[in-house]
Amino acid sequence: MKDHEVKALLQETLEDYQLTKKERNELRDLLDNVRGDEQRRALYRSMAFDAAREALAKADAGQRFQVLDWLEGTVKTLHPTENLPAGGKREGAKSYFSPDDNCVGKITEMFGTARASVDVCVFTITDNRIVDAMERAHRRNVQVRVISDDDKAMDAGSDIDRLERMGIPVRVDRSEHHMHHKFAIFDKSKLLTGSYNWTRSASLHNEENFLITTDRDLLKDFTRMFDKLWRDFS
To answer: Which of 101, 116, 147, 150 counts the highest number of beta carbons within 10 A?
Structure first.
């Protein structure tokens, strides 16, 4: 593959601001053709940085973080032996269990560090501590969107109406069935998902769990599902 074709390949992988598994494999195939040629690998890395700089100049606030994620993934793919720990590469993930771990504290912390966007898709939301953190993020101009279940939105203590009064966009399923998901996507780069509903009972009494991961394939799948439900419930 000629240098201009490599440049075009890099730009193509950056079009949706995500480096998919298929695209990573294409880059690895490219490396097989230049195995041992460190100068050529350095050139490809320079091309990746050039493409990222061009994309950053045109990207909005949320897309900038996606461009940086793309760049990180691309550079690690171009230099695999420099980034693999002894046990092999593993996407970052951490698990939390309630009531032993401070699950509500972790969720509020993630809202506190969110920079551009948070997409929430949770069956029921009644824990005011989390809603307070959502409000603070909203006031910092973080773009927060919420999907929830229509039946649970009518329960005593539900904070769905409060979120709408804040000006946070909210959509519910409006069907006889339940919107039973419990996940949230922070800055398009971190996924929180598990059995944990955002309630006081989940925090204090129930045996619950969630995990937080930066796995790009999972992020892509959950983002696709959130966007589908957002359209369906419009």
So the answer is: 147
